[in-house]
Structures are given as C-alpha cells and as structure tokens.
Amino acid sequence: MEEVAAWRTRLEGKVVSAMTHTGRGYLLLVGSLLVVVAWGVFAYTVQLRDGLIVTGLRDRIMWGFYISNFVFVIGISYGGVLMSAVLRLTGAEWRRPITRLAEGTAVAALCVGTLFPIIDLGRPDRFHFVLVHGRWQSPIVWDVIAISTYLVATFLYLFLLMIPDMALLRDRPGQGMSRWRRILYRQLSFGWVGGERQRRTLSQAGTMMAIAIIPIAVTVHTVLAWLFSMNLRENWNSTIFGPFFVAGAVFSGIATIIVIMAVVRKIYHLEDYITQKHFVYLGYLLGIFTLVMIYMNVAEFLTVGYSMVGEAPFHLDQLFKGQFAPLFWFVFLGGFVTPGLLVVMPWTRNIRGIVAAALIVIVAMGVERYYLVVSALRVPQMPYEPSVYTPSWVEFSVVVGAFALVGLLLALFVKVFPVISMWEMGETREAGNAAGGTGR
Amino acid sequence: MRAGAVLPLLIFAVLGVAFLPGGVVHASQVEVEISAPKEAQVGHEVQVRVTLRSSGDGVPIADAEVTLLREASFARVVGDVELARAATDQNGVAILLYEPTVAGEQNLKLEYTPPDGAERQTAALAISVAEGPQIQRSTAGIRVPGLNVWALIAVLSAVWAVLFTTALLMVRIGRIGTEAATASPRHADQMPSREEPPA
Description:
Chain A is an all-alpha fold. Helices cover 73% and strands 0% of the residues of chain A. In chain B, 26% of the residues lie in helices and 35% in strands. Chain B is rod-shaped and about 120 Å long.
C-alpha cells in the first residue's frame, strides 16, 4: 500500500510539474505557434477584404484546400475520441496513460475543424443562413447538426472523465497552484470527494458516454462523407464513401495521437508512463488500418474501373496517370504500404519506427483528402475544358495557421489540464498491486 | 385547261398541308404512305398512320411490322430509340401512337419489313414539336410511411437526451459532493479523495 502511495505521489508530482513549470522551450513553442496563427489570421483578413478571388477557388472547383483540411482535421478528432471510447469499453488497461491525450487532441482538432467551413465561405456573415433558411433535406444541414452534437459530446466526455483529477489538483496544497488554477479546478471538480456514490455515478456516466460517443462519432464522419456522396459527381457519388471516411478518420486520428504522444512524452519526460508498449499497440492499430484503407481503395476503384460508366474513365485517368497521379501513388504506396511495413518489420517496430510511420500517415491522409475533394470537382460536368486548381498563398497561410492553432490549443491544454489521467492510472496500479502484478 | 390544272393543284396543296410531312415513298416492292401531323406539342399524343401496299398492283400488305424510331444520344452513345410499334391490318394500315417528350424539330424514322422477307427498309418523316406542359417530374426519393423528418428528430432527440442525462449526472456528482461537505452522518461514506483512494 505504501508502495502504491509513493508511486501515486511520484506520478502526480511529474504530471503537476509538467503543468506548473514553464520552461523556455515551451514559451518558444507557444510564441512560434502564435506567430503562425497570427499570419493565418492576417491571410484570412485579406480574404475577407477581397473575397474568395484571392484563393484558387472558382465556380468549377469551388471546394479545395479548406474543405479537404476540414475533412482531415475532423477525422483526427474522430480518431482520438473513438480510440479512447473503444479502449475504455473493451477494458484495455494499457489505454490509461494515453486516453487523456487522445481526448484533448479530439477537442482541439474539433474546435479548429469546425472553423473551416466558415473560412471557406466568401461571406461568413451569412453563415447563419444555414440555420435560418436550411432545409432538412440538405446534407449541409445534417452536417451542422451532427458536428454541433459531436462537439458537445466530446466536451462532455473530456470533462466528465477529468473530474477526479480536477479534485486532486484542487486539493493539492501549494505546488505552484495559482489562484486562477484553484478557482478553475474547484469549478471543474464538481465537488468531487471520491466517495462511493460519486464513483458509481461517474462510472455510470462514463460508460454511458463511451457507448454513446462511438455511434455519434461514426455518424458525424458518415454524414460528413454524405456531404460529398449525395452529389451526382464521379467518385463522390459512391455508397462506400461513408465507411471510407470513417476508416480514414480513425487511421489519421491514431497517427496523430502517436505523434502527439511522442512529443509530450519527450518534452515532459513521461517515459515511465508512456512506454514503448503504448506506441507498439497503437502501431498495430495503425497497421490494421493500413490494410483497411488498401482494401477500401481497391474495392472502390476496381468496381468503378471495371464498369467504366459515365465519367469514370476521365477520373481514373487523372488519378492513375494524369494530374493527380503523383499524389495518388504517394498516398497508396507511401501512405498505406510503407507505414504497414514499418509496423510489421521487427527492427522498425519501436518508438522511432512507429512515429515515422505515423508521420507518413498524417501527410498521406492530408494529401488523400485533398485529391479526393479536388479531383472529383475537376471532372467536367458539361462540355468544357477541365479546370485547374492550385491553392493560393492565402489558402496555404490560413490552413497552416489553423494547424498551428490546433498545436496552440494542445499546448495550452497540457499546461492547464493533466496530460495523463492520474486517477485512472492510480486505479490500475492499485488493482495490479492487489493482484500481485506491477499494474502497468 | 386552266381550271382543270388548278383544281388538282388545289386539292394537292390542301392534302399536302393536312398531311405534311406525310407522303408516298417507294421502296423496292413496297409503296409506303405516311400520314402524320406537321406539328405537335410535348405531352400530346401524335398519331402516325402508315399504309403499306405492293408497289406493282397496289394490294395492301397485312401483318407487316412497322416501327417508329427517333435518333438519340445519351452518355456518348448514339442510337435509335423505339417510340412505337404496330402491325398492319387487312387494309395495310398501321397506326402508331407516341407522345413527344422533347421540343424541337424531330427527325423520325419508320422501319418496316417487305413481305418477301427482304432486308428491313426505312422511311423518314419530320415533325415540329412545340413546348408543352412539364411532363417529367422527378420525385424526391421514395416515400416510406414513418420515415420522415420526425424520424430524424426522434434520433437526434435520443442522442441529446443521453448528453443531457450525462450533464445531469455531473450535476448529481456535484450535489453529492456538497452534501458530503456538510459532513452529516448520513454521508459517512463520503471521504476526501486524498484520504480514501478509489478501491
């Protein structure tokens, strides 16, 4: 028992120290991110002033870099939440040090992801029209409803499971806890004292949310796919698009969590808690999803390519041999096959190998979302020359600024909230100790 | 002479106007007479009367199949679309009925088989089709009883009910904590988290 108490004190000290001690490196990181975000905001003001003419978007290719990154970022969020919920429901004990990071990443990505459709509007002041004049039959309305529901659910899920940790921080004397922190933790701890009734209620609410958030997350990304697939456009108008988007979201979500996990582990010296085992297990999930993605792509393109109906020849030609061929083959060979090999091969099945695989997957999925959106819009709907789309500096700047904002939110998150779920780790340790194991 | 020449011309002109672009077509051993209105309207039925006779003795050809076709293209495929099909009666007459769906000048084609079993032969006719009332109305999906916006609202309400319940449970956690803070004997099980770690 004493050993568990000492272990808990050590863990809490480590996590709280990461929150309260701000080094130069952290300030430099936040400063750099702020500069990039500011540049993105400046670029957006240029777009607001001059209109969408400053982007590469035109009447034929009207969705581009913004919408493809909207899909990508929402996917990251979805992957984080789903991973956390599934591992929680299946009782995977190894999840405990990483679920908080996954949930935090989900919230940060979702907050920024929801901005992209508004950024994509030439007249953002008319955004409320979708609520005022929207029709139930429109997939855009479905999307707004689904994402707003998901946003609330994700926040609830994150803060619900943080209640015991908030109480722990509230009750910590001194230790660099400033006044605003104490007020914040007191409010977010919901009067937690750790009694039996509170634990039972928390367990009940946690299980309910973990069950509910899986179909919510699947629905959100499926509805997002329907935004495309309900259009009569080559490649988009496909029944496989919903599952395809969901699988891609989990794939990119897992990859993002691996990378963030590696960064946080390195910066806050959490090597004792986030171990190689966590990377390898997530690597296995990544490997499984490389196969799922390959399967989905083959299923889609073989079916379309075999029948060659309508505009399929044009689309497949531009994808396999034409304008999008370098991107497509990079994604297929580099983004699906290479990470799979990195996970499978024993000598790369370590932290470096898995993080490298994850980085490749993130880049590849960003590229995949890009050509998925743009290539379909390039297929002529009438007898005109296929359009050309290149993102402008404004689009690049806004998107990079948005990614920096995700990073900034995460950097602030790990400073304000414990990056590891201390109470869950403690539970595991105690259970392991009682069973005579190590508990880790 | 003048009156004798003018009268047949007048009759020909009247008949010509009435039955244009109808006329007589000779094809191998078959004499085809087509009678159709010159103008039609989208959505209104058009009657094309075809008479087949032997070109030598003028005997009507019965039980010959006559098909009315229109050239069309769809998705880069060009071909003939069958509009109507009928067989000639004892008088060698076949009545073909069809309803134009597209406005504009329509070049139609008639196909018929000569009695000697020779290759199918064709004759052409043109009809000017004017705009008419909208006849094609696409229905938005299939109406399934009960599957409407209320079903969507029901699903959405269920999801929000779960979220709301979770929020209420969080409030309940807070209430239990407040009660424990009063430290009444009734809440003896409530201890500070630092002193009583979860089992």
